[in-house]
Write a structure and sequence with these properties.
Layout: H1 6-14, H2 18-52, H3 62-106, H4 113-117, H5 119-161, H6 163-183, H7 186-211, H8 213-218, H9 227-259, H10 261-272, H11 279-323, E1 342-349, E2 359-366, E3 371-375, H12 382-389, E4 397-402, E5 405-406, H13 412-418, E6 419-422, H14 433-438, H15 446-455, H16 459-464, H17 482-496, E7 500-504, H18 512-525, E8 530-534, E9 546-551, E10 554-559, H19 561-566, H20 570-583
Parallel strand pairs: 3-8, 3-9, 6-7, 7-8
Antiparallel strand pairs: 1-2, 1-4, 4-5, 9-10
Length: 591
């Protein structure tokens, strides 16, 4: 099927406002034609003066022609303003609709897609690519209609007075247009794509660098510690310099030609008037010298419109790259979980472009109300396994069931009400703590939210805040530590009260005092729930009903803490190393 053009896509996003877009083109074209009228009246003024010389008192229509020039110029401005009002109203609606459509689509995608594409790149696509359409619709398209209407009027005017001068004034224009076509052709389209790729890479690496700046400052490292970020900047610099040098000569030729039309006319006039000059020829020459700057302006508008068209084409292709991602398929025969058990059967999973499976033939049954901890070396597949239970990723091999029902057969809303996820790096929105917690249950009362905060051990946090639970996080210098943010996030999960709970290294960023409070909150939160806990601190999993050791995407061992510790296996070695690290002190030898 033939792909829809970028303009048709934009008009589709405009909805009913597309008629304003069309109106802006019409008004802009009318404005271009009206803008030519002052030159006609100026020509009439000059002709009357030259015809009446030296008896200037005989001039009769000087005032009329002068006022008509002013009126037509003002009319052209007012019509152009009307065009811009129409185009801006439509452009802002298109930009908002693109962002809205993109965000609505993103929430239907598997939550794991962000890990593959990167948050910095997603932000750039959604916000910057949609912003590129605003400039194109609000300014470039009306200007293009203006630029296309202007040559039509000019073509008539150029040949009305002296066709020889009119033809000569068009020769440099034709040469400039050919050069412009080279600069805005297929090669330029490819360059524009490379430019946005380089910019996107730099933006994505910048986000990662900013996130890790605390590590850089702590250890006194330079920007070179983040080699990929430095390389992305260097690549962007090389591309821009090379591209600028590549366009230097054609741009010089183009600028010279479009700004040198008057020089061609003067040189031609010297040849054409070698036998003498008449008032009529002098008048026509002055007229063409006055009007030819409009040709320069028109060509410049066309060039920028062509360049911006390439930018929009690239922006729309990036928007499409998001919109074409397949959302999680919704089941046609929805089922409800019968209980809060979790079962993995022959689960294998590989991330896109990965060389090997992240999970390999995992089979595991977790009973209702059972607390199971996943431990093992980093990169072994612990978080991947837990995220699959929440359907952050869809698997092709094997099945995942909650309450005896395949997660693919559970409606999305039902699954989200069934499973709660506490991440190791919880984030709060820039709104009140009350509203941050209420996200889990929009219809919750204030009393329900306060109870959830108390159960999550958040009383000390609320006491120190200026407005308590109504304090806006991130405003006026109000910030919370990682452990405090984690407790607020736990209150959110408590309010949701889902029967299956996944804890992904939830105490990773907590200090000892916060960790004690977080653990106390977990003890309340986990009552009666099935818990899947991902942990690196082995002290947090001692009380788990069962510990599952995962290595290289496979289950290496299972059992209780005492059973695994008694074996000569991976867990026993991890436990020895953990205790050795816990006893280590700065400046004290263990020898």
């Amino acid at each position: 099927m033939k792909k829809e053009s970028n303009l048709k896509q934009l008009l589709r996003y405009a909805g009913g406002y597309k008629y304003l877009t069309v109106a802006s083109w019409i008004f802009s074209a009318l404005s271009a034609l009206a803008a030519l009228l002052p030159f006609v009246y100026i020509w009439k003024v000059i002709r009357e003066v030259l015809d009446a010389a030296p008896d200037y008192g005989a001039v009769q229509n000087l005032s009329y022609n002068g006022w008509m020039a002013v009126i037509s110029a003002v009319a052209a401005i007012l019509i152009y303003i009307a065009a811009l009002i129409c185009s801006h109203l439509a452009a802002f609606r298109v930009q908002a609709n693109i962002r809205r459509a993109a965000m609505h689509h993103i929430v239907t995608l598997p939550m794991g897609f962000m890990d593959g594409i990167g948050s910095g790149k997603v932000r750039k696509i959604v916000y910057e690519s949609s912003a590129a359409t605003e400039t194109y619709l609000a300014h470039q398209l009306p200007d293009k209609a203006n630029a296309l209407a202007t040559p039509v009027g000019l073509f008539v005017l150029l040949f009305v007075f002296d066709w020889r001068l009119g033809l000569l004034s068009l020769l440099p224009v034709a040469a400039a247009f050919l050069i412009m076509s080279v600069m805005t052709g297929k090669r330029m389209r490819k360059k524009m794509e490379e430019y946005n790729n380089a910019l996107g890479q730099m933006a994505g690496e910048a986000v990662e660098y900013v996130r890790g700046i605390s590590v850089v400052k702590t250890f006194g490292q330079s920007v070179f510690s983040f080699r990929r970020f430095k390389e992305s900047i260097d690549n962007y610099e090389k591309w821009v310099i090379a591209y600028t040098k590549d366009l230097r000569f054609p741009m010089m030729c183009y600028t010279t030609l479009v700004n040198g039309i008057f020089a061609v006319l003067i040189a031609a006039a010297l040849v054409m008037t070698s036998g003498g000059v008449t008032n009529e020829f002098l008048l026509n020459l002055m007229y063409y010298i006055i009007i030819t700057p409009i040709i320069t302006l028109t060509l410049t508008k066309i060039m920028y419109a062509s360049e911006n068209k390439l930018i929009v084409a690239d922006a729309m292709s990036r928007i499409d790259s998001i919109m074409e991602m397949k959302p999680l398929p919704e089941t046609k025969s929805p089922k409800r979980p019968m209980d809060n058990s979790v079962e993995f059967s022959g689960v294998s999973f590989r991330y896109k472009d990965a060389r090997r499976n992240a999970l390999e033939n995992i089979s595991l049954t977790i009973n209702p109300g059972e607390h199971v901890a996943f431990v093992g070396p980093s990169g072994g597949g612990k978080t991947t396994l837990a995220s699959i239970a929440a359907r952050f990723q869809d698997i092709e091999n094997g099945s995942v069931k909650i309450g005896g029902v395949n997660v693919k057969d559970i409606p999305k809303e039902e699954l989200m009400d069934t499973v709660s996820f506490v991440f190791q790096d919880s984030r709060l929105l820039k709104t009140s703590i009350l509203e941050n917690v209420r996200m889990a249950k929009p219809d919750a009362s204030r009393e329900e939210i306060l109870k959830a905060l108390r159960d999550a051990q958040c009383d000390d946090i609320l006491e120190k805040l200026p407005k308590g639970v109504d304090t806006v996080v991130g405003a006026k210098g109000v910030y919370l530590s990682g452990g405090e943010q984690q407790r607020i996030s736990i209150a959110r999960v408590m309010l949701k009260n889902a029967p299956v709970l996944i804890l992904d290294e939830a105490t990773a960023f907590a200090d000892p005092d916060n960790e004690a409070k977080v653990q106390a909150a977990f003890s309340v939160l986990a009552k009666g729930k099935t818990v899947l806990m991902i942990a690196h601190r082995l002290s947090t999993v001692i009380g788990a009903d069962r510990i599952v050791v995962i290595k290289d995407g496979k289950i290496a061992d299972t059992g209780t803490h005492e059973q695994l510790k008694a074996k000569d296996g991976l867990y026993a070695e991890m436990w020895r190393q953990y205790n050795k690290a816990a006893k280590w002190k700065v400046g004290v030898s263990n020898a």
